[in-house]
């Protein structure tokens, strides 16, 4: 009886270990409920959606409440000055949004909206400008452009000393006042590379440079930092020999996050405080976490995929794990925006480990009986 119990025990343990490994491959992925947030009344119904921790979603010229009601952002200028454009690029937990807008002329100008009311940000030098992110203190970042030059815009944070050549843009900001983006930081390197920028100055995140014996630069790679969380994890995209890949910068290290399948392309756009980033690879919406690339299409009702819909790009994630993005229908050619909300969760690996220990204890008691 002890021999039989040992065999059965090893089989049970083997099965649980295999199950634990499969859970690791899904990085404890939740199962999601998919909702279309398509709104044809938006000036651009296919624009990039952003979400805050209250479940409010900003896209194009509108903001969708957690209950599904829409409000619309006023463009710059007086309300009787004619049609204008408003395009949002971020939303914080205070409901403030940022982006760009215009009612006259050909250039878009940087804007902050409190509710639906816009405040233009004009330093008088840009031919075009946009704000790209706003943190939960109401501080914002962005950039202005003037012919071939680009320079950072920031409010409420201190940017320390820096040297850049012609281009420096900011794309993400955390609540600690650290901004990230890209810049040309060397006169011999014309490509923009990922940076972080705070009161202590600009830091080049991507320092991959190859020099010859005379210290001349012979090779370099381009990169961009898209977002940063409060733990200082920075995500974005970098050029590698294998292609353009989503990348994580953390504690001085640079990690290629990989791609989905054999694709040579991936990008990570936003990251939450749990360290889960979202983006796209191989024309599919994905998440990146703990060294795993997960196709988000695997976590929705299979009947949705059977009807032709493919989640093609995940653009933002909040602290509740809600994800927004863009989906396309391969049968009808339609494009819509989506919201994914977790409805159940696979147990964490630690939970499976406790189950495994419990099984071992139970079989040990049985074998000793």
SSE layout and pairings?
Elements: H1 2-25, E1 30-36, E2 50-51, E3 57-59, E4 62-64, E5 70-72, E6 85-91, E7 97-102, E8 109-114, E9 117-121, E10 128-134, E11 140-146, E12 149-155, E13 168-173, E14 179-183, E15 193-198, E16 201-204, E17 209-211, E18 217-220, E19 223-228, E20 234-240, E21 243-250, E22 253-258, E23 266-271, E24 277-281, E25 284-289, E26 292-295, H2 302-306, E27 309-317, E28 323-329, E29 335-345, H3 349-368
Antiparallel strand pairs: 1-29, 2-3, 3-4, 4-5, 6-7, 7-8, 8-9, 10-11, 11-12, 13-14, 14-15, 15-16, 17-18, 19-20, 20-21, 21-22, 23-24, 24-25, 25-26, 27-28, 28-29
- Biggest sheet character: 4 strands, antiparallel
Low-confidence parts: 1-29, 346-368
Structural class, from secondary structure content? mainly beta
β-sheet strand percentage: 35-45%
Q: How is the CATH topology of the largest domain named?
A: Neuraminidase
Kindly, what is the distance between the CA atoms of the first and last residues, rounded to a whole number of angstroms?
Answer: 10 Å
Helix content: 10-25%
Q: How many DSSP helices? A: 3
Entry summary:
By secondary structure, this protein is mainly beta.
Give descriptors for this structure.
single chain; 369 residues; mainly beta; Neuraminidase; 2 domains; four-stranded antiparallel β-sheet; 3 helices; 29 strands; 45% strand; disordered N terminus
Explain what you see.
The protein is mainly β and about 375 residues long. It has 2 domains: about 1-25 and about 350-369; about 30-345, Neuraminidase, CATH 2.120.10. The chain has helices at about 1-25, 300-305, 350-369; strands spanning about 30-35, 50, 55-60, 60-65, 70, 85-90, 95-100, 110-115, 115-120, 130-135, 140-145, 150-155, 170-175, 180-185, 195-200, 200-205, 210, 215-220, 225-230, 235-240, 245-250, 255-260, 265-270, 275-280, 285-290, 290-295, 310-315, 325-330, 335-345. The strands form 8 sheets. Strands 1-29-28-27 form a 4-stranded antiparallel beta sheet. The protein has a 4-stranded antiparallel beta sheet with strand order 2-3-4-5, with no helix packed on it. Strand 20 and strand 21 form a beta hairpin. The longest helix has 24 residues, at about 1-25. The termini are close together.
